[in-house]
Amino acid sequence: MPLTLTPDEEAMLAGEHGPAVALSMRIITELGRIRGAEELVDIDSVHIDGCIFYGQAGLDFAQRLVELGGQVQVPTTVNVGSVDLIHPHLILQNTEKERWVAQGGRDLMQAYVDLGCRQTWTCAPYQMDSRPETGSNIAWAESNAIVFANSVLGARTDRYGDFVDIAAAITGKAPRGGLHLDAERHGDVVLDCTGLSVETLALDVTYPVLGYLAGAIAGTTNPVLLGIPADVSEDRLKAVGAAAASSGGVALFHVVGRTPEAPTLEAALGPHADAPVQHITAQRLNAARQELSTAREEQLDAVSLGTPHASVDEIGEAYDAIVGGPPLADGVAFYISTGRSVFAEAERRGWVSPLEDWGVTFVLDTCTYVTSILRPGTRTVMTNSGKWAHYAPGNMGVDVVLATLGECVESAITGRVTWNRELFT
Amino acid sequence: MRTITGWRVTSGDAQGAVLKLHEPVSFWGGIGPEGDIIDVHHPQHGAVVTGRILVMRSGRGSSSGTYVLAELLRLGIAPAGIILTEPDGIIATGALVAAELYESRMPIATVSEADYASIEDGVTASIAMVGDEAVISLVD
Fold it and tell me: What letter does residue A329 receive in the DSSP assignment?
C-alpha cells in the first residue's frame, strides 16, 4: 500500500499552510514513502536533536525554516546544543575550529528558539515537568531520549534524527511505522540477570554496564531484562537505555515487572515466546566494564557525571557523597552536566553552592563530550556513564574508567584512579 | 556492461567508481571533513568516499548522520550516489534536505542481496531513476 494522505495533509503538502509546512511535509512524506508507511500519525510532542552544530548545513536548514515563517505546532523541547548559554566561558575558543563551533552553535540554538522550541537544552526531556503519556505517539530524536520514552514511559516514537525532528514539529505529523506499531514493540532477546547477586544489583554502575551488554547483544532489536529488582529507579533505567543505544541501536527495552509493556515475560515477548536467552553473569559484567575502561594512567585529570543529564536525585547523591568530606585534589576537574530545570531545583534545595565550593563545575545546556570543555591536556577521565565511556575516547581523545559514584569521588579526592576491576559478583 | 534494477530511495542520476564497504559506516563520527573514513575501527579506514558510488549493506550509527551527509553534500565532497540493500531513513533524510537547500540530488537506491553481492569494488557504475525503479549499469 502506498502512503495515503488525508485531505488536510494534502493541503499542507500543497502549501496551503505556508512554505515552511510544505517543506517539512515533503520531508515527512518522502520519509514515509521510503519507510513503507501507509499513513501519517498525529504526534503529541517532539524532542529536537538537530540543534548540535556539525557544520553550516544544519544552520542553513534551520534558518531556511525560520525565513519561511516556520513555527512548531506541538510542544517541542530541544536537546543540548554546542554552547552553555548560561556559562559561555566554559566553552574553549582557543582554535579556529572551536571559535567556529561556538559561533555556529549559538546561531543554531537561536534558530530553534525562533522556530518556537522551549529552551530546555537537555538530552533528558523526560526529567522535566510534562512527560508523554503511556501509549501516546511522539517524535523524539536523541537516542537516550528515544529509548527512555519507549521503554520507561511507554510512549511511542520511532528513531527520529536531525531534520526529521523539526519537520515533525512543524507539521505535527510523523510516518506511522517502526516503533509506533504494536508489532514492532515486542521483545526479541532475553537477558537473564537472575544469576547476579543482590549486591551487584544494588550497585549504580551495574546498570550502564548492563545497558552496554544489552546493546552489544541486541543491536537494533528489543532486549528484555529479566531478574532486575521491581523497584529499580528511573535513573538506573536511564543508564541502561543510554548505554544500550550507544553500544547498539536499542530504541526499546523491557524490564520484566518494571516497565509498562512488560508486566510478565510473556507479555514482553508477545509472539516471540521462543526468543533466544542470554545469561548475564558477573564475569560478563566485569569483562564489559574492563572493555569500556581504556585508562592506563594512574593520575586522574577529571570526573564527568551527568550523561545523560543528571536528575535531581543524582545531584543529591553527589551532594551526599561529596559535601562534608575531604577536599578535591589539586589538578582534578569535576563536572556535572544537567539541564536548566533540574539545576534550578538543585539550587532550591541548597545543593549547588556547597558542591561548587568543593570544586564541582556545573555544565548546563550542553555536555562535556559534545563540545570543547575539558581542559587541553586532559588524559584520564572517570565517569559513571556508559554512554560517555563509549563515545569520549573517540570524540575527545581521552581515556576513561567507568566507575561507581563512590569510586569517582574517592579518586577525585586522592587524584589517583581507583577502581575495583572485579566489582561484580 | 550489465544492468541491475533496484528501487529508488532518493532521486537523481550519478556515475562513478564503486567503493564497496566491507561493513557499513556511520556518517557521524565515521566520515571526516575531507570525505575520508575516519572511524579507526572500520576496515577501510582512510578510504575516500567523495565522488564514489558507495555500496554498503545498510546504514549505521548515530541519527546525526543525516546532518553530516547534508554537510558533505554542501561541501561537494559526498559520495556521488549510494546503493544499499535496505532503505535507511537517516541517510535518505540527509540527501532530501540537501536537495531542498542546495539542489544537489544524490541518488540512493536499494538492490536485492544477490545483486548487492554481485557488485564489485572499483567498477564504474551509473545510477538512473525511472519512476520508482533504479537502473544501475555496471562496466567491469
Answer: P
